[in-house]
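Researcher: Go.
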Amino acid sequence: MTMVGHVSSSYYSAVLGHSIALGLIKGGLSRIGELIFFPLADGRVLQAEITDGVFYDPDGKRQSLISALATQPYNPPEAPRYESALCHTEKQTGTGNQDGHTASQSNVAQVVLHERKGLMQHVLRGGGSTSEEENKAFYDGVEATLGIPLPRKPCLSIVSENMQIWWLSPNEWLILSSEDFSVEARLRHQLSGHFSVVDVSGGLCVIELSGLQAQTVLRKSTSYDVDIRSLPIGKCVGTVLAKTQVVLRRSGEREFELIVRRSFADYLWLWLQDASQEYGLTIE
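Model: Structure:
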C-alpha cells in the first residue's frame, strides 16, 4: 500500500453518524471524491472519501431554513440536560482562609462568588454594510425583535429585565437572556441581508464576583485598571485575567461579571476562590 499522506486529527460526528478526519494528502485538492485507505495498528483497514473542506450543507440551506414554527418559543418535548462546567462547586459560607485564620479587616466575608446558570448566550454580527439603509434595517430589526437596542459605542452594555447585550467588537455583540430559546429563531425571521447569529450557550460560563473586596481580588488577577473611573458601571472589556481570556463587565459599584470559555471556567473559579480567601469568601 503506497503512502500518500497522513491524518492529523479525527473525531466521531454524531450528526453524520460516522467519523470525520483532517489529513494531509498528496494532491488532495485535485482528488476530491476519491477513496483512500487507512491501515490501523491492529491490522484493520478503513476506507474514507476525500471531501471538500465544507462538506456538510455547503450551500447553507440548513442554516437559512426558516419556518413559521421556528418563530415560536422552543419547548423541547424532553428538556435537555443542562450541566454547567462548574456544577461540581459547592456553596460555602466562611470568614476565614484555608488555614482557618480570621479574614483581615472584618469578621464578615467580603467577597461573594456566584455562577449565573441557565443563561442563553448568542453572538450576533451585522451592521457592517456599506449601505446605510441596510445597516439601519439591521439595527431597527434587532431592536424590534429583542425590545432593546444594540449598544453602538465601544465597550458599552445595555440591560433590560430579562436580557443583556454586551458590545464585543465593531459589529459584534453578545446577547444574554434568561432561558429564551427563541432568540435565534426570532432574529433569523426578522433580519435580512448580511448577518450572523450563533448560539454559544454551551461554550461560555458567566461568573459573578461581588463584595467589598471584589475589586481588590481583580487587581491581583488582571493588569486592566478596574478602578471605577476606568471601568464604570455598564462598561465591558475583553482582557486577560489569571492568564485566561475573559470579558469583564462592572454591573454595580462592587459587582462584576466575567464571561469565560467553558474549558477555562474551573481554572478561573479556583483562582478567584484562592485569591479571595484572605478577605473571607462566600460561594453562592
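Model: Residues 123-194 form a domain with the Alpha-Beta Plaits fold (CATH 3.30.70.1520).
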